[in-house]
Specification:
Elements (H helix, E strand, L loop, with lengths): L34 H28 L2 H27 L13 H30 L6 H24 L5 H30 L4 H28 L9 H11 L3 E13 L2 E10 L4 H19 L1 E9 L1
Parallel strand pairs: 2-3
Antiparallel strand pairs: 1-2
Helix pairs in contact: 1-2, 1-4, 2-3, 2-5, 3-5, 3-6, 4-5, 5-6
Length: 313
Amino acid sequence: MSAEIWCAYEHRPIPPFEPEAHTHHSDPCASAYRPDQRRALAVSLLLTLLMMTVEFATGAWYGSLMLVSDAVHMLSHVSALAVSWIAFKIAGQSAGKGLSYGLYRIEILAALINGVVLAAFSLWILFKAIGRVFDPMAISSAEVTGVAIAGLVVNVATASLLQRSGAWDLNTQSALLHMIADLISSVAIVVGGVTIWLTGWTLLDPLLSIVIAVIVVKWSFNLLRASALVLLESQPAHLSQDQVEAALMEGFPQIKELHDLHVWEITSQFVCLSVHVVVEDTSLSNAQRLRRRISGFLRNRYGIGHSVIQMEC
């Protein structure tokens, strides 16, 4: 197994399989663990923290629930970005012999925490918005709209930064989801602020807050579900055991039967497989060559970086 594809000693997860992406690096284990994602998270964290402070102060001063709700969402986003960054920092550390697969599950735990926080804050905003429907409050729409536009610019910048960093792992996706949720919230606040400014219809503030909260709650539960499935070691969403079994039986005529096939993820794109392969009675050297071919096939076609293949006759 080549070093460009897999760091065997550290069980380093690989990105979605792209042969060209590995030809320029002789030792992927020498670089920091997911440096692009970590750098994007750090910059996004600073920008979001600054904008959250401005939005919360403005919303509290002028009485806008939409702006306060967006600031509260940003607080959850600050926590999410911090948790994701810390998770990457920890995941890249050596775990010793006690944790044979390393600390990569920290990423999934971070995504799970982010999902819980996002759902909790959204439910709180939903509760507050319903109360505001029955007890409307006048707001100063001009100031609210101005701050919301600034927040929208920050949200676009951070979401774009995270997307360009390569958000294919569940941890970075959880942080990106927070940013997209806040982006939608900022758009709603800008539209709502302008509408209230022109029409004076203050009821629009809590109504838009309810819509935002419902959307974000749904997204957060999807994130929780995806994180829980990885922790439960279910098969990856993009890959099924039947698919792998059919490909092996078709691609290797030496295989007479497969059983005890298991496919699971340690963390995003760190896919593992174990299987018992039944072949005709043959020499150990032939069985070893076949095992290596099967392992290479699984890695190249499906990105399965860690496979345990037991040969039987």
